[in-house]
Write a structure and sequence with these properties.
InterPro entries: COX7a (IPR039297), Cyt_c_oxidase_su7a_sf (IPR036539). One of its GO terms (biological process) is mitochondrial electron transport, cytochrome c to oxygen. It is found in: Mitochondrion inner membrane. Belongs to the cytochrome c oxidase VIIa family. Keywords: Membrane, Mitochondrion, Mitochondrion inner membrane, Transmembrane, Transmembrane helix. It is a single chain. The chain is mostly helical. It has one domain: Cytochrome C Oxidase, Chain J, CATH 4.10.91. The chain is built from 3 helices and no strands. The protein is elongated and about 85 Å long. The termini are far apart.
Length: about 90
Amino acid sequence: MLGRVFLRRMSSLAEPLAKPGKGTYKVPNNPRYKKLMEKQTVFCRDDGLLVWQKLPSDMMMYYATVGLVAVGTVLTFDVLRRLATPPKND
């Protein structure tokens, strides 16, 4: 009961949601919801690009991830090289 009251207060709908099975549902009239729907339209567009290629911010995250993986791989091989070659005793 308390959960329902909380969800209704947090909802951007003016009226409560329709009962399941009726087939009619309210759509929020909210700028954040419209922005989300525009972004979903961009991601669903069939332009031959993969998901991580759709937005510029996604490309930056992809390149940052690839760069960090490359740096991590180089550092891993450096540690393995140092462990495989013991220091010389002079």
